[in-house]
């Protein structure tokens, strides 16, 4: 994690949490600028089974705001290379949580965007 000024830039790479031992799919990259809000739980989207079967890869950029309690709202797809990835990306944002704000602190009206990159990986045989 790198801090620049008052803004945080998160660049996180994850293996998809729902992967199976021999699964060859993953969400290879998530980028987001959460500004002043600190994420407590960031969820990686599941790779759609039909896209995995058809060997389709793609990117989805989802924009949203975070309420006082740390829940994302006004979630919308900004760009997408394939519609198959849009619902899993929205579900991942909806399941993510940010640190709640104290009651005396104003809620900043900041739109946050996160890009999910869905990529297939080859599995080495034994």
What is the CATH C level class, in words?
A: Alpha Beta
Low-confidence stretches: 1-30
Count of DSSP E strands? Answer: 8
Structural class: mainly beta
Please, what is the average pLDDT?
76
Strand order of the largest sheet: 1-2-3-8-5-6
Helical content (DSSP H or I, runs of 4+): 10-25%
Percentage beta strand: 35-45%
- The H-and-E topology, N to C, reads as EEEEHEEHEE
Count of all domains: 1
Please give the count of helices.
2
Terminal-residue CA separation: 36 Å
* CATH structural fold name: TolA/TonB C-terminal domain
Q: Tell me the radius of gyration.
A: 16 Å
Largest sheet: 6 strands, antiparallel
CATH superfamily: TonB
Task: Indicate the CATH architecture.
Answer: 2-Layer Sandwich
Shape: elongated
């Amino acid at each position: 994690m790198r801090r620049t000024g008052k803004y945080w830039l998160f660049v996180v790479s994850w293996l998809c949490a729902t992967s199976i031992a021999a699964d060859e799919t993953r969400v290879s990259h998530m980028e987001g600028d959460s500004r002043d809000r600190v994420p407590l739980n960031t969820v990686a989207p599941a790779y759609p089974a039909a896209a995995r079967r058809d060997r389709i890869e793609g990117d989805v950029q989802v924009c949203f705001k975070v309420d006082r309690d740390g829940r994302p709202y006004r979630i919308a797809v900004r760009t997408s290379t394939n519609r198959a990835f849009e619902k899993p990306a929205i579900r991942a944002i909806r399941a993510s949580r940010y640190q709640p704000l104290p009651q005396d602190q104003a809620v900043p009206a900041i739109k946050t965007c996160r890009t999910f990159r869905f990529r297939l990986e080859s599995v080495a045989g034994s």
